[in-house]
Write a structure and sequence with these properties.
mainly alpha, 5 helices, about 0% strand, about 70% helix
């Protein structure tokens, strides 16, 4: 029993960055890398344009840069690191998720420590009295 989707799938239809999985030729892989390079250059140029021009509403610049940075990371993950949702990439996706978790834990812990640092420190006048 097959569904309508199995019949409509084209054999040459692969996810971006996943050209190597089908044993595609070198030219398909080079086109994939060049596409990723073009997108990365476009996103980088857009970031410089947003940061260096007065055509963009000034309060929106940090948000635009964060969005462009996330898009840049996505391009690198898909086109250069070949992280896709395929069944053979499960370990790669899990390793990436674990790495992201560790980064957020370190950043969150650092911010928490810095936020509570003044609360745990001795007041400055007491420190000055101790030095005399």
């Amino acid at each position: 029993m097959t569904n309508g989707f199995d019949e409509a799938v084209n054999d040459t239809d692969v996810a971006p960055g996943d050209e190597h999985a089908d044993g595609g030729g070198v030219s398909e892989r080079v086109i994939g890398y060049l596409t990723g390079l073009g997108l990365a250059i476009l996103l980088t140029a857009t970031s410089f344009f947003v940061a260096g021009t007065d055509l963009v509403w000034q309060p929106s610049i940090p948000v635009a840069l964060v969005v462009l940075a996330i898009a840049q990371m996505g391009v690198h993950l898909v086109f250069f690191l070949h992280i896709t949702t395929g069944a053979d990439n499960t370990n790669n996706v899990l390793a990436l998720a674990f790495g992201i978790l560790i980064v957020f834990l370190v950043m969150g812990g650092s911010l928490w420590i810095m936020a509570n640092l003044n609360h745990n420190m001795m007041p400055m006048d007491q420190i000055m009295q101790m030095q005399r």
